Amino acid sequence: MTGGRNGSSVHGLTGKPLLYFTSVFVSLGVFLFGYDQGVMSGIITGPYFKDYFNQPTRAQIGTMVAILEVGAFVSSLIVGRVGDIIGRRKTIFYGAIIFVTGGALQTFTTGMGSLILGRIIAGVGVGALSTIVPVYQSEISPPHNRGQLACIEFTGNIVGYASSVWVDYFCSFIESNYSWRLPLFMQCIMGTLLALGSLLISESPRWLLDNDYDDEGMIVLANLHGGGDIHNERARDEFREIKENVLVMRSEGERSYTEMWNRYRKRLLIAMSSQAFAQLNGINVISYYAPMVFEQAGWVGRDAILMTGINGIVYVLSTVPPWYLMDKWGRRPILLSGAIIMSLALSAISYFIYIDVHYTPRMVVIFVIIYNAFFGYSWGPVPWLYPPEIMPLSIRAKGASLSTATNWAFNWLVGEMTPILQDWIKWRLYLVHAFFCAVSFVLVYFVYPETKGVQLEDMDAIFGDQTVAPTPATARQSLLHPSRSGSPVPELDIGSADSKKSRSAGRSKNNQGITGWFRRFFAKSEYESGGNYRRLDEGDEV
């Protein structure tokens, strides 16, 4: 049995190299999210941008920036179901295409109307990517370093943000409208790379097994966790555990949103609250409006963008320690310590803007950097890791969809209101977000469970909402001994060497070249139309 389109390794990579390659590559999806967060922060203070849009008011600037979240909110509600139907991989591809379309409209805008339309369309793409990429990441990651891989993904987000700020800074030296059109065009380049790359990565093994593409799922698991060997015991144990969970969930029937809420309410509220507080804790005051914050503190023009760029570099560096700490310390200690320092830093920013002395600009920069660093270490990565890992497979995409929609709803609220509140309540704005940091500390301390090192299929025990259907222990016993009567999954039939050779030859002949690659990708389902892999219960024909 050899890998097909979704089951093959990438250029011979298997195991950890394949895991890290895939994680880094899909991080382009959240790179686009981060880039879009930061790109507007620099260009909205530029003279050519202001002149082109007739000196927009603070309310108009707020709308330009925050309207992206409207499209992202809508798509994040829909994409969970889409991802369940067409798969994680195709959802990433279509999300990238939509994002490129929106970026092109922004780049070649002729007025505020077309810019806003482009922001909405780009938001649809960002919403799809920000929902499905964390789900995909959690589903390909082993439990012992799931946190590390999710943190690498988040670093991609912040690299996107920092890159946008420095692109804004260097383009600010251009004496024409290209000073703001060029940063917007960079969205199209990154989105195109992600779309092309999605043709290379494997499909999620959990999605494949959930849709009964068991041969394909076994190959992906072998590539990810068994060095490409489908006889590897670890990969086969992983297959049986996932398939057991699929069958148990399937016996309970389709999960509607109402049933999901009734049964998994605690999980949903935790997932949604983590994303809500990630925004209420104040990060987008900095991400979207950092140059305006620095101007408020006394930095002027290009210097404000430069300070934002320096802050962006520290922000990126702050996301690296969680790569090593997330699976050692756990999620709770990181969230709790981050909330404390962020609250103190925001309070200090508020104080120094209030007293308005000669050293205020320097002190504001220092405490903004401290705040950003501790957000990047804590409330940045964890809310993207936590929701998909605590959700059962049957509702994972839907649950992640709701939590991501919560993120975008509060993202829009903060983005829309920040420039208005900066003008209205001034220094007190930062105290509001400091208060929310304190509230998030209390919530995590009393409500959030620790999920470090827990298998995705074992989260039921953490939350105490185990199924009343045949127990996982019973199902696991029959899966581990498939020859016994009543096994829910037939024994894997690898087939003879001649059989494998003939199937491999058939695949090579029918699927060569770029044309075959695109034909297979855009087909509704290669498995539904005489594809290369059969479901296990169909047996092998020699």
Automatic annotation (TrEMBL):
Transmembrane segments: 18-35, 59-79, 91-109, 115-136, 148-167, 179-201, 268-289, 304-325, 334-354, 366-386, 427-448
Predominant subcellular localization, coarse grouping: membrane
Domain spans labelled Major facilitator superfamily (MFS) profile: 22-452
GO-annotated molecular function: carbohydrate:proton symporter activity
One GO term describing the cellular component: membrane
Region (Disordered): 478-512
Domain of life: Eukaryota
Location in the cell: Membrane
InterPro entries: MFS_dom, MFS_sugar_transport-like, MFS_Sugar_Transporters, MFS_trans_sf, Sugar/inositol_transpt, Sugar_transporter_CS
Keywords from the named record: Membrane, Transmembrane, Transmembrane helix, Transport
Keyword Nucleotidyltransferase belongs to the record: no
Any Pfam family hit: Sugar_tr
Membrane topology value: Multi-pass membrane protein
Family designation: Belongs to the major facilitator superfamily. Sugar transporter (TC 2.A.1.1) family.
Record PANTHER family: METABOLITE TRANSPORT PROTEIN YDL199C-RELATED, PLASTIDIC GLUCOSE TRANSPORTER 4
UniProt name for this protein: General substrate transporter
Organism: Choiromyces venosus 120613-1
High-level lineage: Eukaryota, Fungi, Dikarya, Ascomycota, Pezizomycotina
